[in-house]
């Protein structure tokens, strides 16, 4: 018998496997920002273990975005790579110093990017 969590996991895996590259990028941004929100909340609540886990996962996503970015693809790519480097440094520092404010600053930089990628993905899908 298949359980509800198994069905959910299969649905999520199928969603990832069938998503376009643009949709995958948006999914990564969504998860990264969710990690930042939850990490910030955990820091504010004094839950160091959850904060560390969420911030480390967000760092892994930033690293993935940075390493898969083709800096020769467009003229803004090197600046985006630099932003990813800055975000990574800030998240490491926020985790060490347990600073929810630094996490919030990263989230505030990344949310408009996520929204722009979502818009671009929608335009690509519609076009």
Automatic annotation (TrEMBL):
Checking SUPFAM superfamilies in the record gives: Flagellar export chaperone FliS
GO CC, sorted alphabetically, is: cytosol
Under the heading InterPro entries, the entry gives:
FliS, FliS_sf
Write out the GO biological process terms. bacterial-type flagellum assembly; bacterial-type flagellum-dependent cell motility
Q: Which UniProt keywords apply?
A: Bacterial flagellum biogenesis, Cell projection, Chaperone, Cilium, Cytoplasm, Flagellum
Pfam families according to UniProt: FliS
Entry's localization field: Cytoplasm, Cytosol
- Which family is this sequence assigned to? Belongs to the FliS family.
Q: What is this protein called?
A: Flagellar protein FliS
Instruction: Please name the taxonomic classification of the source.
Output: Bacteria, Bacillati, Actinomycetota, Actinomycetes, Micromonosporales
């Amino acid at each position: 018998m298949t359980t509800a969590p198994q069905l959910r996991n299969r649905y999520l895996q199928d969603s990832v496997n069938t998503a376009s590259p643009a949709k995958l990028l948006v999914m990564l941004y969504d998860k990264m920002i969710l990690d930042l929100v939850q990490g910030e909340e955990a820091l504010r609540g004094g839950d160091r273990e959850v904060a560390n886990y969420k911030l480390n996962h967000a760092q892994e996503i930033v690293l993935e975005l940075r390493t898969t970015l083709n800096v020769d693809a467009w003229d803004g790519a090197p600046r985006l790579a630099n932003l990813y480097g800055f975000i990574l440094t800030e998240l490491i520092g926020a985790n060490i110093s347990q600073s929810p404010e630094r996490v919030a600053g990263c989230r505030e930089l990344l949310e408009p990017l996520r929204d722009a990628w979502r818009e671009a993905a929608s335009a690509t899908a519609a076009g």
